[in-house]
Model the fold of this input.
Amino acid sequence: MSEQTDNLTNLLIPYGLSVSEGRVYLFLLKNPNSSALEISNNLHIGRTKIYRLLDKLKSKNLVEFQLDNRGLRFGATHPGKLEQLVNEKDQEVNILKKSLPSLLSHLNQINSNKSIQKSKVLFYEGLDGLKQVSWNSLQAKETLRVFEKEHISDFLPLDFSEKFRKEQVERQITTHDLTNKSSFQGFTNVTELIKNYSQFRYIDPVKLKINFEVLIYNDVYATYTYHESEIFCVEIHNPQLAAMQKQLFDFVWGQAIPMQFVDERGSVIIKE
Done:
C-alpha cells in the first residue's frame, strides 16, 4: 500500500473499521463496481476473507452490492456514511450513560453483600497501567494528595490528560500537589480546575526529594515511575497505611511554601 493509503486506513480505525476493512473500503472508493476476485487479487487477500469483509462493511452501510451481466459487483457508499457511524456511536454512548447509574447501584448492592478484603496490593505495567492508576484516583472522595514530579500530561497523552482533568472538575475533586519545582508554565485548558480545584506548594528538594509520583486518597496509596525503559505502578489498598501517609503528606504540606497561579492555564510561581 502507498503511504497515503496507510495513513487513511489508520484514520478509519477509530470509526470501527479494521485495517483490512479499511483497505477494502478505500479500494472500492477508487475502483467502483469491482468483483470479489478483483478486490482479492489487488489487495492480496483470500477471496473467502474478502466476502467476510464485504459483509462487515455492508453492515456498516459502507458497501453496496450490484448484480449485472458480469455477476456480483461491489462499490463503496458515499464517505458521508461515516457521519452516520459517528451518530450511532453517540447514541450508544448516551444509552450507556443513562443506564450506568442504575447498573452501578445494582452492582454496588451485590458488592456490599459480600465480604470484601480491605487490604490488597495491585501491580500495573506499561502505559495502559499508568492510565489505569491515574484514572482510579478519580474515585477520591476527599482531597487527592499528590507528590508530583511532572504534570500528568508530561507522561501521558494530552487528550487523556485533559479528559482526566475535566472529569476531576465534574466530580469536584480538589488536589493538593507537592512539587520540587519553584515555578512552571501553564499546562491545561481546563481553566475551572485551576480556578477551583487545584493547589500547589513547593518543597525544597534538600528537605524532600520527590523521586516517585505518589497519589494518596481514600484507603489507597499509589506510586509509580515512568522512565522510557520502565513504567511500574503499585496500588496499596490499606486503611492504616493510607491514614499514616495522609498524616505524613499533611505534615510536609504544612512546611511547604504556598504557590500562586499567575494565569488561567496554571502557570505557577512561589507566593510572595
About this structure: The radius of gyration is 26 Å. Residues 118-270 form a domain with the Endonuclease; Chain A fold (CATH 3.30.870.10). The chain has a mean pLDDT of 89. The chain is about 45% helix and 25% strand.
